[in-house]
């Protein structure tokens, strides 16, 4: 089977939370080509799903060593830190992902805004888990500009700012259909 097909199938397994199956496909792909950064990246994504963060980060580092301009490895390294609630360590990796290529300013700004929104959303989830709803809501408001899931959380607690209500209602209707 071609590497692209193996990685596509592995990603589908990850989306279904069938991590062992995804890992088997990643290893099969590695046996075909051990210097393909996408394979290490997909293996890292799979390992993050299994909460094996250290192993995932080793995979991302291998992808970066093979191809220093491979943006997704930097981004996913940030995600791995984020999932461990190591937010301060996540941000530099997300910024590196943006800076790997010379990119237009609008793309840099958009990517950083999305990364910061993800940071605030995850921080809100952490506060919610601790029962600190007021701080969770503060974080979700900061994330709401770029994240529908943050708006849904604010709706859940009856605290969605008016400026997001109309857009959120339309988006949520589309999701249901």
Throw out a few tags for this protein.
177 residues; mainly alpha; 10 helices
Summarize the structure.
Helices cover 79% and strands 0% of the residues.
Give me the secondary-structure topology.
Layout: H1 3-15, H2 19-32, H3 37-49, H4 53-66, H5 71-83, H6 87-99, H7 105-129, H8 133-143, H9 148-156, H10 162-176
Helix pairs in contact: 1-2, 1-3, 2-3, 3-4, 3-5, 4-5, 5-6, 6-7, 7-8, 8-9
Please tell me about this protein's structure.
It is built from 10 helices and no strands. The protein is elongated. Helix 5 runs antiparallel to helix 6. The model has no long low-confidence stretch (mean pLDDT about 80). The longest helix is centred in the middle third of the chain and has 25 residues, at about 105-130. By secondary structure, the chain is mostly helical.
The helix fraction, in percent, is: over 70%
Order of helices and strands: HHHHHHHHHH
List how many beta strands DSSP finds.
0
Give the averaged pLDDT, no decimals: 82
Supply the helix-strand structural class.
mainly alpha
Low-confidence stretches: none
Measured by DSSP, the beta-strand proportion falls in under 5%
Distance between the termini: 36 Å
Morphology call? elongated
Biggest sheet features: none
What integer value in Å does the Rg equal? 18 Å
Please give the count of helices. 10
């Amino acid at each position: 089977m071609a590497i692209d097909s193996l990685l596509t199938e592995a990603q589908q397994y990850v989306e279904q939370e069938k991590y062992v199956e995804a890992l088997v496909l990643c290893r099969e792909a590695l046996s075909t080509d051990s210097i393909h950064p996408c394979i290490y990246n997909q293996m890292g994504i799979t390992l993050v799903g299994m909460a094996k963060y250290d192993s995932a980060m080793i995979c991302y580092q291998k992808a970066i060593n093979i191809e220093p301009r491979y943006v997704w490895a930097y981004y996913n390294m940030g995600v791995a830190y984020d999932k461990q609630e190591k937010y301060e360590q996540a941000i530099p990796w997300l910024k590196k992902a943006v800076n790997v290529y010379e990119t237009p300013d609008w793309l840099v700004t958009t990517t950083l805004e999305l990364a910061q929104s993800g940071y605030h959303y995850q921080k809100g989830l952490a506060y919610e888990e601790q029962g600190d709803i007021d701080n969770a809501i503060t974080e979700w408001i900061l994330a709401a500009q770029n994240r529908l899931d943050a708006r849904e959380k604010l709706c859940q607690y009856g605290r969605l700012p008016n400026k997001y209500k109309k857009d959120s209602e339309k988006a949520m209707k589309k999701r249901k259909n």
